[in-house]
Automatic annotation (TrEMBL):
One of its GO terms (molecular function) is fructuronate reductase activity. This is Sugar dehydrogenase. One of its GO terms (biological process) is D-glucuronate catabolic process. Its EC number is 1.1.1.-. The keyword Transport does not apply. It is an enzyme of class 1 (oxidoreductase). The lineage of its organism: Bacteria, Pseudomonadati, Pseudomonadota, Gammaproteobacteria, Enterobacterales. The keyword rRNA-binding does not apply.
Amino acid sequence: MNGSTDGLVEFLQLTGKQAVIDWLSANATCPNTMVDRITPRPAADLPARIKAQTGIDDKAPVMGETFIQWVVEDRFRDVRPALENVGVELVTSVIPYEEAKIRILNSSHSCIAWAGTLIGQQYIHESTLTDFIYQIADRYVTEDVIPCLGDNGIDLPTYRDVVLKRFTNPHIQDTNQRVAADGFSKIPAMIAPTLRECYQRGARAERYRYAARTVLRLYGAVAQGHAAL
C-alpha cells in the first residue's frame, strides 16, 4: 500500500531520529493511496514522436492509457487540498479498492497474457478480443473473484466491465510478454487469496483452476523453447 505512515515511522526509527518522529506524529499524516493506470513499455519511436509533436527532447518518456484512478484516504491533518476537484476519490479506506485492483484487474490481466502468449499472440488487446480468452477472464472474475470480495462498497460488476474494456484498447500496444513475465511471483498476491476463500466458502473455483493450468503450461512451453517471455 502506498503512503504508509507505519513504513515511514519504521524507517525513521532505524535512523534513530526520534525528534523527527515526534514532529511527524504531531504535525503530519501520510494517507494511504492507490493508483491505477496501465503504462506499457515505451515504444522505440516514442521519443521521436514526442519531439516531432512538442519540440521536447524527452530522454525517458512514459506511455499511458487515458484511464486513470487515484484513490486517497481522507486522513489529513487540518486543511487538505481540494483533490476531489481534479478527479481524486477520497475514501475512508483504500483497502477495498486495492483488493479489487489486485484480484480483478491484475489477476485477469495476467490470465489473459498467459493464455495469449500460449497461442502466439503479441498484444493484450488481441487476446482480450479473442472470445474464448475473454470468456475465461470474465467468468473467472464473475464466478470466483467477485463472490469472494462480497459487498465492499464498490460496484464490482461495473468495475470488471471497465477493466476488460480497458484491455481491448489497441492504442496501448501492451504486450502479453510484459504482463506474463514473473507469473509465479504474482500468484500468491493476485490469485491465491481467491482460491483460499473459495474453498473456505465451499466453492470449487473452477475458473481459478484454468488460470493455474495456463501459467504452468506457459512455463512448460518456455522451458521447451515453444514460447518466449
